[in-house]
TrEMBL record:
Species name: Stakelama tenebrarum
GO biological process entries: proteolysis
Top-level division of the source organism's lineage: Bacteria
Cytosol aminopeptidase domain mapped to chain residues: 310-317
GO cellular component: cytoplasm
Keyword Hydrolase found: yes
Keyword Nucleotide-binding among record annotations: no
Keywords, comma-separated and alphabetical: Aminopeptidase, Hydrolase, Manganese, Protease
Name by which UniProt lists this protein: Leucyl aminopeptidase family protein
Length: 464
């Protein structure tokens, strides 16, 4: 992985090329103030006052050049406003002229992410270094970008290299690095204690056995926070098998676990004063003679029964057992992340996280953080009248509402809510964590979504 500390450095007056920023309001005045050679260069490069447009401006000598880029608002920089430059400029060192880059440092770093695990060609690009006069912010930005890179790497990896054991190994590394306690439940203990996790993962076979991965960290006297991530390392759909087109990206069905692991690392590395409990139910939803079946009635850790109405609605099953376990620790806050439903994507598209919460204050805190961090989310309702759609004729509930294609993200969230203890503040993030096309700072493929917003909300709540 790229050494990000080389890409963001304190400004100590070292040699660097200047980056000038303008927006639609200031463009004409800026252009008029430039010498003829700069105006000619801007015209030759067809510079217009539109987002991410940029141009190289000549100076007095052949090597004396600078850069101008157009941003949405010069008074309020976004995380992504310099990201295009970080992708396209020649290698070298740069500083923003006349102001600090602030939040744009994050996009500068994430724009230089490359996933090269499987590449044999050597097309490594030289680093583009950004200078800042706010050295106190460097460590936090580097930590956040490093965690983002790790999340992307975990999700981008092929399922053959990212099984339940690989998620366990990643969790073990984080726990060791920050003094956390790792607990892994598998085998007969999993059968007895977490029957839904076992049922979903038992068909995967030797070497890819299901397990519950937990990390506990922090002072027991601090507020207890549970973070839970869906860890379906590959989802065939089970016996209700997906078509090939629906299975193509299912290596990313462990994206929720990558986010839980990433948020846990942010908490531990920053020494946030909480008692952290991170849980990842890790399974592969495979097809074999051991596969669970439509119509099977599953026991749960909570003690209620679930009629399996669809083997492709497996994520909520494993989360149900994990949420129950998290609730036994009496947390005051519970957050889960899951690539749970296609219905959320139909409603919101790939860029918006679907947010569900059982507490308005918590929801507003998360939405406010999402807006301030340019990490967008949209709240969807826990609509109580839809709860009856989970009724079963033979068990306490079904896992997927039958007979209707409507409200799938809501009924999935309502299923999860049944396992959340009374009085616990809970938020559920239905995420996609994949970009079908690239944007500046956000290449095609895996991405961290809702991470920065959730981290800000946690810092605002506990960091003081």
């Amino acid at each position: 992985m790229t050494d990000l500390s080389t890409l963001l450095q304190a400004d100590r007056g070292q040699s660097a090329r200047s980056i000038h920023i303008v927006d639609a309001k200031t463009f004409d005045d800026w252009l008029a103030s430039q010498p003829p050679r700069a105006r000619a260069a801007a015209a030759a490069q067809k510079l217009k006052p539109t987002g991410y447009a940029n141009a190289i401006l000549p100076g007095d000598g052949p090597e004396d050049w600078s850069v101008v880029t157009v941003v949405a608002n010069v008074d309020k920089l976004s995380p992504w406003c310099l990201a295009k430059l970080a992708e396209t400029l020649p290698e070298g060192t740069y500083r923003l002229e006349g102001r600090e880059p602030g939040p744009a440092t994050y996009g500068w770093l994430t724009a230089q992410y490359r996933f090269e695990k499987y590449r044999t060609d050597d097309k490594a690009q030289g680093p583009r270094v950004l200078l800042t006069n706010e050295p106190a912010s460097i460590d936090e930005t580097l930590l956040l970008a490093n965690v983002t890179f790790k999340i992307r790497d975990l999700i981008n990896a092929g399922a053959s290299d990212m099984g339940p054991a690989d998620l366990e190994a990643h969790a073990e590394g984080i726990a060791k690095a920050y003094g956390g306690t790792l607990t892994v439940t598998r085998g007969d203990e999993l059968v007895r204690g977490y029957p839904m996790i076992h049922a979903v993962g038992k068909a995967a076979g030797k070497g890819r056995e299901p397990r519950l991965i937990e990390i506990e960290w922090g002072n027991p006297d601090h507020p207890r926070v549970a973070i839970i991530g869906k860890g379906v390392v590959f989802d065939s759909g089970g016996l209700d098998i997906k078509p090939a087109s629906g299975m193509r990206l299912m290596k990313k069905d462990m994206g929720g676990s990558a986010h839980a692991l990433g948020l846990a690392e942010l908490v531990m590395a920053s020494k946030l004063p909480v008692r952290l409990h991170m849980l990842v139910p890790a399974v592969e939803n495979a097809v074999s003679g051991e596969a669970f079946r439509p119509g099977d009635v599953l026991n749960t850790r909570k003690g209620v029964t679930v009629e399996n109405s669809n083997t492709d609605a497996e994520g909520r099953l494993i989360l149900g057992d994990a949420i129950t376990k998290a609730g036994e620790g009496n947390p005051e806050l519970m957050l889960d992340f899951a690539t749970l439903t296609g219905a959320a994507r139909v409603a919101l598209g790939a860029d918006l996280t679907g947010l569900f919460a059982n507490d308005d204050t918590l929801a507003n805190d998360l939405l406010g953080a999402a807006e301030s961090e340019s990490d967008p989310a949209w709240r969807l309702p826990l609509w109580d009248p839809y709860d009856e759609m989970l009724k079963s004729d033979v068990a306490d509930m079904v896992n997927a509402a039958e007979g209707t294609p409507f409200g799938g993200a809501i009924t999935a969230a309502l299923f999860l809510r049944r396992f959340v203890p009374e009085g616990v503040q809970w938020a559920h993030h239905d995420i996609f964590c994949w970009r079908q096309s690239a944007k500046p700072g956000r290449p095609k493929g895996a991405d961290a979504v809702s991470l920065r917003a959730t981290w800000k909300a946690l810092k605002d709540r506990y960091g003081k």
